[in-house]
Amino acid sequence: MKFSIERAVLVKAVAQAQSVVERRNTIPILSNVLIEAQGDGVSFRATDLDTEVVDKAPAMVERPGATTVSAALLNEIARKLPDGALVSISTEAEGRLTVQAGRSNFSLATLPREDFPVMASSEYSANFSAPSQLLRRLFDKSRFAISTEETRYYLNGVYMHVADGEGGRVLRCVATDGHRLARIDAALPEGADEMPGVIVPRKTVAELKKLLDGDDAEIAVSVSETKVRFATPTIMLTSKVIDGTFPDYTRVIPQSNARKLEVDASDFARAVDRVATVSSERSRAVKLALDDDRLVLSVNAPDAGAADEELAVAYADEPLEIGFNAKYLQEIAQQVDRENAVFLFNGSGDAALIREGGDESAVYVVMPMRV
Prior knowledge:
Blueprint (H helix, E strand, L loop, with lengths): L1 E5 H12 L13 E7 L2 E7 L3 E8 L1 E4 L1 E6 H10 L5 E6 L4 E6 L2 E8 L14 E6 H11 L14 E9 L2 E9 L3 E8 L10 E4 H12 L4 E6 L3 E5 L3 E6 L18 E6 H11 L9 E7 L2 E8 L3 E8 L1 E2 L4 E6 H10 L4 E6 L6 E5 L2 E8 L5
Antiparallel strand pairs: 1-5, 1-7, 2-3, 2-6, 3-4, 4-17, 6-9, 7-8, 8-9, 10-15, 11-12, 11-14, 12-13, 13-26, 15-16, 16-17, 18-22, 18-24, 19-20, 19-23, 20-21, 24-25, 25-26
Helix pairs in contact: 1-2, 3-4, 5-6
């Protein structure tokens, strides 16, 4: 195998593949990236047995072939090569991979390509295309609520499914950790109607963010009961889905919260951040005291001190005092794209519902804390 590739192209492709590789591996081949050169391009494939990414890059191929080499090592070398360099990569008879750029020369150990596990192909029951902006919004706005509690493994991802929305069928992403919930809707892409509901794992959601951030093209999405695949013309991300049943989230979304607070989302997030400075890291509880068009945020931490801040808001209901985890309030406020965040409350012991202005396609729920 022998090919030449631009340094910038190599860095991007190897970084994407290397990010899937687990830091600590008991199986040496899983630390490697599979390099396959043929035609007018080269592909870099990496896997952790649950997730697989394939990044195709243009290259000048002199001799087709394939081998595997340490993903972390190749990534480090590529990053440290000079900008604008043309990198020559080839295999030698004694099973070494040579990387050359200018006067730099590296000879790396390889493992046979035959030992590299390739994720079994799957029959996908639904195939559709969606703009990257649509998928980016669905996953970016829901990912913060993914649970990190391994015992409730079925909450360790984003539940992507088809649901009945305000104006008909929608593509919906939901994530919750039991304390807060995000439910985001988007127009249902053509061909997605029969898609089975799947829980996309946390790691896959993180990898998908990189893919969606760097591409404004249409994303080809394929879904089966056990796998999900997202593909651009150059990158293909395939993942097993979480084998579990996502709970009935509709039961925890309040339907009758009548007390309405409207507040500037960025002002609110900054105020929460300021008063939370004195709260203990363990609880980070912030109290919201609501009265006529007035909101007072306060924190009382016996060990550290106290803080309060007043905000001018739109509120015309009965006075209310309610406490929340400061981190949860900040994360939700940061999701709000519109100027105003709308909070709907019931009582001090009930979950609050948050929306982005009048937009009902993004709904957040947060459980209260005692303060």
